[in-house]
Amino acid sequence: MKSTASPEQISQIIRYAWEDRTTFEQIEERTGFTEKQVIDLMARELKPSSFRLWRKRVGGRITKHRKLLEKHLKGPIDEE
Questions:
Q1: Which label site among 38, 65, 75, 80 has the fewest CB atoms less than 10 Å from its CB?
Q2: For the CA atoms of 14, 53, 69, 15, what is the dihedral angle to 10 degrees?
Q3: How many CB atoms sit inside 10 A of residue 17's CB?
Q4: Contact between 26 and 16 (Cβ < 8 Å)
Q5: How many CB atoms lie within 10 A of CB 13?
Q6: Given 3-state DSSP classes, what are the helix, strand and coil percentages for the chain, each rounded to the nearest 5?
């Protein structure tokens, strides 16, 4: 884990984490932080009430996970 992240990097990761359309995979590609590391960073950097709000917001959100989003966009295939 990157324990030596600068304040600017931390701010950037928090911004990405709050964005609905930025997946955890994209965050990892851009910053090197895995989903677990982002969650740990958010828990450490946000107030407890803000962290709970964020977790509720991103929990199960298909746009935060590339695989869920791709599965959703493909949808069921109609057979005729």
A1: 80
A2: -20
A3: 22
A4: yes
A5: 22
A6: 70, 0, 30
